[in-house]
Specification:
Layout (H helix, E strand, L loop, with lengths): L6 E5 L3 H13 L3 E5 L2 H10 L4 E5 L7 H11 L4 E6 L15 E4 L4 H11 L16 E4 L9 E6 L6 E6 L6 E5 L6 E7 L5 H23 L1
Parallel strand pairs: 1-2, 1-3, 3-4, 4-5, 6-10
Antiparallel strand pairs: 7-8, 9-10
Length: 218
């Protein structure tokens, strides 16, 4: 079927989800492209700007949280649907730069209704030059030196580069793009979907420590 509706970009690290959504949305007339993570999505954005971006939040390499933060700053006119199974309901999770939220596992009819509704929403204009909200960069626990090892996506040239930042999470920091030199305000954060895992791990570690202490005492 020829494309008769909006151009969509689907970003998800699960091939089965990308294939299913592409098949269904293409059959009803949408022009659909796909990307497997945030970095791939930025490359697609450099080729062509979609009308609507649908992005998973929990992805490796560059999460949806980071991708949507860049998109909101660089391409404010793109309508965005965030997707995740880690949040419930239809309200956009706090801290997510999206216009709508689709809970994975919900009906495709609900997603289609959401896409249709976004087509009639007023699109945002360019952000003012004074806009300086920091990018939220996901903390990479694989760093070996106590510093936060992160990969930053420049909201100006859309290129990515590695950067070693100090380990202070949540504090604003400034760096410069290694390609175009643009100043980038960023904040190293731990996203909500990872917090429960960290709490569980800490509880497990505390339990093991207590058991070891009890064994030594005996």
């Amino acid at each position: 079927m020829p494309c008769t509706k909006e151009k969509l970009l689907i970003v998800d690290d699960e091939p089965a989800i990308r294939s299913l959504m592409t098949l269904l949305l293409t059959e009803i007339g949408y022009c659909v492209r796909c990307a497997q993570d945030g970095f791939s999505a930025l490359r697609e954005l450099r080729k062509e700007i979609p009308d609507i971006l649908l992005s998973d939040l929990n992805m490796p390499s560059m999460s949806g949280f980071e991708l949507l933060s860049v998109v909101r700053r660089r391409f404010p006119s793109i309508m965005v649907i965030a997707m995740s199974a880690s949040f419930s309901g239809n309200e956009v999770p706090s801290g997510v730069a999206a216009d709508a939220f689709y809970q994975k596992g919900s009906s495709m009819a609900a997603l289609l209704h959401m896409i249709g509704a976004l087509q009639f929403m007023e699109r945002r204009g360019p952000l003012p030059s004074s806009f300086a909200a920091p990018l939220q960069i996901q903390w990479d626990e694989r760093g070996t030196s106590g510093e936060a090892c992160v990969t930053i996506a420049c909201p100006e040239c859309l290129r990515t580069f590695p950067q070693a930042l100090d380990g202070s999470r949540g504090r604003e920091q400034e760096t410069n793009c290694t390609y175009c030199g643009s100043a980038i305000q960023c904040s190293v954060v731990e996203h909500p979907y990872r917090m429960p895992q960290r709490i569980s791990q800490r509880r497990a570690d505390a339990k093991i420590s207590a058991q070891r202490a009890s064994a030594v005492g005996d």
